[in-house]
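My hope is that you will study the record closing this message with an eye to the fold:
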Amino acid sequence: MGIGRAVHKATTEGENREHERWMREAIIQAKKAGSQNEVPVGAVLVEAGKIIGIGSNRPIGLHDPTAHAEIIALRNASQLKQNYRLPGTILYVTIEPCTMCVGALIHARVGLLVFGARETRAGAVVSQQELLQKVNYNHRMEYVEGVLAAPCGLLVKQFFQAKRLAK
């Protein structure tokens, strides 16, 4: 992609269907996280129409603050590919990534980020820091936001509502 600002990628109807297909897979991973009392965030990393990495949030279960869905998906794919660089891949994640995850995506050279719902408090793509707009990074990544945003956001909303009711 080259150095420069991130692009909010416009998509065709065919691309939208494909994005929804893979986001549904990420939602499955998010539900898996929620069933384990983790914040329900899921991610899948796709290359050439195939999943090469999956992840669901696991920081509590793994006692690891870096065990976000995106990081786990990147780790899976890196092991599979035997390379920490993952150019030409697309990461689908149910919630807008945080600072740590955006940094990992840049370092891995992911080609496209597709996310569902915004994370208004800590989202680092559009909601808060807009890290992909920084020109100092040596990798430029396109992104698509809002794919199946309502069901993605609802998972997190319902999770925290249940937590508050349990108190």
Remarks:
- DSSP finds five helices and five strands in the chain.
- The radius of gyration is 15 Å.
